[in-house]
């Protein structure tokens, strides 16, 4: 929600239901917070979106087709600006078995099987239900976060804050560029040069 108010946002998830190993996810999160702090300004320049929509080079032109994508000359700068303005957020997924390496990813696909169980306590009782998957399966996705976690890597996905078809939605081709990573597995735009 911070992104909606023009604040750079980072979300972190621990990929286990068991708290054992959670300290590895905390370490991964602190690594990304440090990387973000190195490239962010001291003060959020778009805090509370004082000007509403900013004139940027990274918003989609949809529904109008555009052959001119002004961000193409400096895609890393456009991605960093989007993060600084709260239009792009970082999403960390770290497993308990994190091996210390990173993968720049996009969202993957997980299937939560039998995630809702209903309790039956007779006619006079209050209906109850429990949410918690009996099993979790995933489908392989190119550069997917679930696949990185399966390989004991922490994943870092760059996600648009605004949904597709929103006037502030990011250009999808630019979002694909966010998958370009360094030898360390982090997005190129996040590494201070």
Structure description:
- This protein is of the alpha/beta class and 193 residues long.
- It has one domain.
- It contains 4 helices and 8 strands; from the N terminus they run E-H-H-E-E-E-E-E-E-H-E-H.
- It has helices spanning 22-39, 75-84, 145-150, 172-177, and strands spanning 9-14, 88-94, 102-105, 109-113, 116-119, 128-131, 135-139, 154-160.
- The chain has a 4-stranded mixed beta sheet with strand order 1-2-8-3. It has a two-stranded antiparallel ribbon with strand order 4-7.
- The longest helix is centred in the first third of the chain and has 18 residues, at 22-39.
- The mean pLDDT is 91.
Summarize, please:
The protein has 193 residues and is of the alpha/beta class. Helix content is 21%, strand content 22%.
Tell me the layout of helices and strands.
Blueprint: E1 9-14, H1 22-39, H2 75-84, E2 88-94, E3 102-105, E4 109-113, E5 116-119, E6 128-131, E7 135-139, H3 145-150, E8 154-160, H4 172-177
Parallel strand pairs: 1-2, 3-8
Antiparallel strand pairs: 2-8, 4-7, 5-6
Task: Count the DSSP helices.
Answer: 4
- Largest beta sheet, briefly? 4 strands, mixed
Distance between the termini: 29 Å
Percent of residues in helices:
10-25%
List keywords for this structure.
4-stranded mixed beta sheet; 193 residues; 4 helices; alpha/beta; globular
